[in-house]
Amino acid sequence: MPLLDTLKDYSQFTDLRRDIHAHPELGFEEHRTSSIVAEKLRSWGIEVHTGVAGTGVVGVLKSGKGSRSLGLRADLDALPLQEENHFPHRSTHDGRMHACGHDGHTTMLLAAAWHLSQHCDFDGTVNFIFQPAEEMGKAGAKKMIEDGLFERFPCDAVFALHNFSIGEVGHFALNHGALMASSNTWRVVMKGRGTHASMPHTGIDPVAAVINLGQQLQTLVPKVVDSVERALLAVTQIQGSGAPNVIPDEAWVGGTVRTFSESALDAIEAGLRQLAQGTAQAHGCTVVVEFRRASPPVVNHAQEARFAAEVMREVVGADAVNEHFPAVLSAEDFAHMLKAKPGCYAFIGNGFGDHRMPDHGPGPCIIHNTSFDFNDAIIPIGASYFVRLTQRWLANS
Q1: What does pTM read for this prediction?
Q2: Which position among 124, 342, 375, 386 has the lowest Cβ density within 10 Å, counted as fewest Cβ atoms?
Q3: Residues 6+ apart with CB under 8 A from 319
């Protein structure tokens, strides 16, 4: 692979990645991680801005006289999971772990920032965006934008990478449109009248109503979404009484909705509300419907996606780049940045798990698994992509 010479020895970044992995922090609590990022950027002579959306950090690096500007984004936060690995850099905090590889994403972008700061072999401005709170629907990207991200740090385009189970180490995958789905949660609360379970005729049973609604929702998507689109509504939660002999005053059912278009999402939400109202009326209940749109679909811009794929092929070769990867139903709040600016989101292969040290957990090495660990071998590959992308993009200033 034609990696940058400066990144062929990446041991300093391996150590950094493992240190971040050992000290995971949840969304908007990434104080230690943000401090490390800011300290590294400052030590390399990069202009640093902290406190963006709370714990976000932006590094600004300028070179030459070019007028164009570019945004490169990495995420900082960990997940509320108990790590099952037992190697030396396992999480030092019970109930928290870097199970999605954000420790690696942060390190890849820092490695790129280090190279670019040492060589300044580009013409324009690059903004290194370290975003808090990507996980758990906390919408850190949206909050950075609301905090003036693109007014304070103008970007003509934005790019990001995420490790993913796409095969060989360092392979890339992307497409020219929707790559990931919107993420949305819903809950329907049926309100009846509680009574003893042995005397159902004296009350109004909300549990029966939520069971009925849950069954009807299984067929909602094909009724309201065009068959050429992919969409999903999952019923994942149901709650009634806390005792076996009590019909409660209220019960609820909830879950998630994933779509690749906002029109499909609108149709599903409208259909859910209509079914909930009708079911409540049929059971003599009243109803409250909660529908939360956490993030829109991740939709790449075609021109930027083609450009990114060209750069990837320069770094890893044409055979290691899938430019027409099918969209996945998982979600990412980088979608908010792609709604605000043109750009491209892509996957980088984390391998098959054989990089993990002895004493790892029993599960597969896939994201959001308690046995996951980021593959350090892709640090120089992702960093080389970011560097070459910066050089090529800003060469058009």
Answers
A1: 0.92
A2: 342
A3: none
